[in-house]
UniProtKB/TrEMBL annotation:
Keywords: DNA-binding, Transcription, Transcription regulation
PANTHER family: TRANSCRIPTIONAL REGULATOR, ARSR FAMILY, TRANSCRIPTIONAL REPRESSOR SDPR
Residue ranges annotated for the HTH arsR-type domain, each copy included: 6-89
SMART domains in the cross-refs: HTH_ARSR (SM00418)
Coiled-coil annotated residue ranges, if any: none
Family annotation (Pfam families): HTH_20
rRNA-binding in keyword set: no
Organism, as annotated: Thermasporomyces composti
Name of this protein: ArsR family transcriptional regulator
GO MF term set: DNA binding; DNA-binding transcription factor activity
CDD domains per the UniProt record, alphabetical: HTH_ARSR (cd00090)
Amino acid sequence: MSLGVSKLRATAHPIRLRMLSLLTGAAMSAAELARELGISHANASYHLRALAAAGVVEEAGEETIRGGVAKRYRYRRTVEKKTAQEVQEDLEGKYLVWLTVAHELIRRAEKEVWGNSMLCDAELWVEPEVWDRALQLAREASTVLHEHAKPPRTAGTIHVNATMGLFRMASDEAKR
């Protein structure tokens, strides 16, 4: 199993996916994550250790709380280049992540405030230049949101969701 598969499998769990979303905005401890997610501290610690072991989150310092030391973690946003073989090996893990994202999106949609939102679902044929531009804009939107994310419930913020999945599809002829 490649390292990519272990990272994908580590994130293919609803609680861990939610943790990653929270850790995008701020470094948090297991206790803070437990409170925000409504789970036990032990459960949060377990899932946080799994994410850390897979290299998906990293330590972001420590703080003293009531005589003890709490580690804070943050989401590691890195882009890895993969060989064709590594991409193929990662397909199983990627499928698990897509399933988890689909279930998480349904959970989030239940909290949607209608009005200022956008949904796009399309299977299209476009010129390569158009595709490259769309990817560029999606990456830019993702970067803006991640760079400006705040800790949960920060005064003056709104709770939002951003789920994007842009990928090139194999043509039917290529599958034959």
